[in-house]
Amino acid sequence: MHIHFVDPYQTGQSPVHRLNPRAKLVLALGFILVTAAMPLGAWPVYVLLFSLTIATAVLAELRLGFLLRRSALALPFVLAAVTVIFTTPGTAWLKLPLGSWAISVTGAGVVRFLSIAIKSWLSVQAAILLAATTPFPDLLVAMRAVKIPRLLVAIFGLMWRYLFVLADEALRLLRAREARSAKLPTSPLTPPPQGRGMPLPWQGRGWGLGSLLWRGQVAGGMVGNLFLRSLERGERIYAAMAARGYDGEVRTLDTLQT
Amino acid sequence: MHHTIEVQNLSFQYPDGTAALRGVSFVIQPGEKVGLVGPNGAGKSTLMLHLNGILRGQGQVKVCGLPIEEQNLGRVRAAVGLVFQDADDQLFCPTVFDDVAFGPLYMGLPPDEVRRRTAEALAAVAMSGYVKRVSHHLSVGEKKRIAIATVLSMQPEILVLDEPSAGLDPRARRGLIRLLQELPQTMLIATHDLRLVAEVASRTLVMDAGQIVADGPTAEILYNAALLARHGLEMP
Prior knowledge:
The complex is a heterodimer of chains A (258) and B (236). By secondary structure, chain A is mostly helical. Chain A folds into two domains: 3-134, no CATH class; 150-186 and 201-243, no CATH class. In chain A, 59% of the residues lie in helices and 5% in strands. Chain A contains ten helices and two strands. Chain A has helices spanning 15-18, 21-37, 43-59, 64-71, 75-78, 84-87, 107-133, 136-145, 150-179, 212-243, and strands at 92-98, 101-106. In chain A, β1 (92-98) and β2 (101-106) form a beta hairpin. Chain A is globular. Chain B is an alpha/beta fold and 236 residues long. A six-stranded mixed beta sheet of chain B has the order 6-7-8-3-9-10, with helices on both faces. A four-stranded antiparallel beta sheet of chain B has the order 2-1-4-5, covered by helices on one side. In chain B, a hairpin with a 2-residue loop joins β4 (58-63) and β5 (66-67). The chains are: A mainly alpha (258), B alpha/beta (236). At the A-B interface, α8, α9 and α10 of A face α2, α3, α4 and α5 of B.
């Protein structure tokens, strides 16, 4: 079975699709830099930047739902900045006692957190727009054209190529686990039916089938397994590269697809 | 006129001590198509990795008259086209064009020559329309053909294939057999598919436990039921 949906590229013939990949890369990077440089709390500017991304999405004939759903990927990472709410000095909105100390939620902190969240979200949108309108091999050519080091670009290429292979392997491992996650109604490991009929995730005796602990343990094993498989595959890929004359230097013949 | 491959008394041990090859000797003449059969663990893949210098053991391996040494590795690898079992390991570039162009590019050829050879190699495997495609969206049969194209573009003297028909559906397998019959190169094909060997190879080597136990015309070897049974094989 194959994972096709991981590839963000959406085929199309819009003006954005037909724009030169180098121009698109520079524009996207420029947009992200500008967004990052904007001051905190500059709400009108954020609205303007957002309207730019929406306009580009419309011009590229992408579904807005696609853009918004994919950009929601930025939000979990933004949680890393959540402490900013409590540590920025300013007038306190509310105080939370914690033993003998008190941490306070400040107005300035909330403004800062929201600004970071919105700026991240906008940057991810720019990246998604770039990836959705440019075939990845063209992106690599564009990166080399703007003088990003060849070795780094080669690593990006290999990573993208084998991400799909890795995803397929992970899918197979997950399927194998599911196929072995059987539970008979009369098994002693099945928890007795509760009032509402749904057993809670941590029930089941100890390492019983379906318990969260068991699944966590199996998932850990699968990650380790995937890592080992990737290591060995890496050795085989290197052997294949050496067999075709790879000597450590990165050489390419740059041809654009579009 | 040199032998294409000349192996004399080759022995190899893995780092953990297991002997993978024990005194292997054989010669392959230009133009021959040779099948290499044997049970799993016989050392077929290990032997293949010795033919282009990826592994080095004790004994002598000569390719096109050149002994395998540091200074000859470039020419050896251009002369021996190794096609691996898992096509995904061999298609490591973003597009099909990049993969097929990799070999000639690293041989130091000028861009026009690289493009010409790429077009020729893809035409030889009947995959000319796939130039701009991305490797992971292809089927197993298509990937295997492209993998063969990636070594054909180096114009090697010999093609060494490891399990070429593994995982192919009957149609793709038939296409592959036809391709192997049509290609003019010398070939060494390691496989469990004895019917493929019967159709493509004029000579067969049988390997077991790191040694060559039989070497002769395909017709004799593949119809010697006792010999095959002794080494974990069955008549096709």
